[in-house]
Amino acid sequence: MRHCINCCIHLLPNDLHRQCFRCRGPNHSNQKCPLCKGENRVSSYRDSKQMKLLAVLEVRTEHSESWNGLFCLKKGKLCSLIFGLVIMTLVMASYVLTGAKHGLLLLPSPFHYGAFTSNPSLMDNESLSDIKDYYQSSKINVSYVKDYPSIKLIIDTIASKIEFITRQHPDLEELRKQEPHMFSVIPNKFLPNSKNPCWYEEYRGNTTTDPYTTNSYALYSKRFRTIFDYLRKVFWNHLYHYKDKHYRLRCLPHFYIIGQPKCGTTDLYDRLRLHPDVRFSAIKEPHWWTRKRFGIIRLRDGFHDRYPVEDYLDLFDLAAHQIQGVLQSQAAKESGKSSRIVIGEASASTMWDNNAWIFFYDNSTNGEPPFLIQDFIHAFQPNAKLIIMLRDPVERLYSDYLYFASANKSAEDFHEKVAESLQLFENCLLDYSLRACVYNNTLNNAMPVRLQVGLYVVYLLDWLTVFDKDQILVLRLEDHASNVKYTMHMVFQFLDLGPLSEKQEALITKSPASNTRRPEDRSLGPMLPTTKAILRDFYRPFNTKLAQVLLDDAFLWKRT
């Protein structure tokens, strides 16, 4: 069925052109239609290219066309124009919604700080930092984010607020009041003939009792159930029987690899566990001191039941069985030989993650945590040894972003997240101390990237308030990557481990690096030079203080 172009046009104004409706049917004839016959016939041309949103219609007609046809043609173009505007509006609306979601527009993105309050004394005509909605919102503009001088003002404000104030650690009685169950389980003295801190605990179950039936690590993670299935089978064989009672050997770690994430702790762990004198927990990173004992499995999932200390101690049962085997061997009994096996634990959150304190401990003045992880570790193990692996905090942050970001990763996206995080950190420092901001859970969760993890000296100084400096070994990933043998010998010496054969040493030092950057992340390339300059400025005062504390200018990271 064919229709003249005039009919199509005349149909637009509805019933104004009855003759078009009459000739629209199947009996339409160009010869009978007064608008189609003779010289009034209209030809239409369509663009041969593929049409996307709007079709291009070129209409050619003679000057003798009726005024009605011309009037309808204009209205047809008007409808096309309106339709185009609607499409453009929808596209712009989509852009606005997407931009607002990613914090790219001049729209407020609320970050409400539970522990902070707004400052009513701010004036609107002061510096760049003063014109932001104080603590209640974060206003990020694309042009502002990419403006290095403007961001430099924020960094200068942060630098002016930095104060390294010595922390007053709590006494033992205060710690007992906070964690009475933990102190009832862990004794204050350990076996004298074991280098590792171990003790015997009476076991009141029978042969049919499953000692791991309530272990939270086994309940919440399928991959650990195989380990506990094995422990159930051999558990009864490793009990010590004395005067009609049964005892199990319990152990804590002799040393902790406490940080930092994305600084090579996995590679250090994988090499160190090859030493014949070293054992590790059944799980590389239990995160018990920082998260699990507070009921945190994943931060985004909120709180679950708290993992008791017994669940944590179960993770060292495999190593405890080997230590017990040495202690109970006939040769050891006759010669009084002690066990040289040491147990390690490698949760990279131990050094810095104190985010849960605000939910469980009474608040202190100025928003600072009254108790930190190291207070409790030191209370039970004053002789514990601590290993810290660090890297250039600028590169650490980018590696952290690439590893944990789930989608839309790019150097530009990283740049914008850095700018927003700096603004949030500055907002906090305007009213609170450096320590209060570093340990603030709400602020840390609001920041798109974990800037605070690279403030190494803040955490180190707090650990040095309870542990002696010779109990802490601080390494650099850059040194470890360039000379693995040298750094591993430093670790062996620090832990006072036994000598190795050439074959054992080669196995430890020549194995390939662990947990390197994924290929898909490497393809994204380095961060933007402007981003690197911004982060260099931000971390500089903290690196300077760290180099002073450690008496080593290598921790300035000037050459990286």
TrEMBL record:
Keyword entries, A-Z = Membrane, Transferase, Transmembrane, Transmembrane helix
What does the record give as EC number? 2.8.2.-
Pinpoint the Sulfotransferase domain residues: 253-517
**Top-rank EC class of the record's enzyme:** transferase
Q: Which domain of life is it from?
A: Eukaryota
Q: Where is this region: Disordered?
A: 508-527
Q: Does the keyword Signal apply?
A: no
Biological process terms from the Gene Ontology for this record are: hexose biosynthetic process
Query: TM segments?
Result: 78-97
Q: Which InterPro entries match?
A: CS_Sulfotransferase, P-loop_NTPase, Sulfotransferase_dom
Q: Name one GO molecular function term.
A: N-acetylgalactosamine 4-sulfate 6-O-sulfotransferase activity
Family designation: Belongs to the sulfotransferase 1 family.
* PANTHER family assigned to the protein according to its UniProt record, in alphabetical order: CARBOHYDRATE SULFOTRANSFERASE 15
Q: What's this protein's name?
A: Sulfotransferase
Which organism was this protein described from?
Answer: Eudromia elegans (Elegant crested-tinamou)
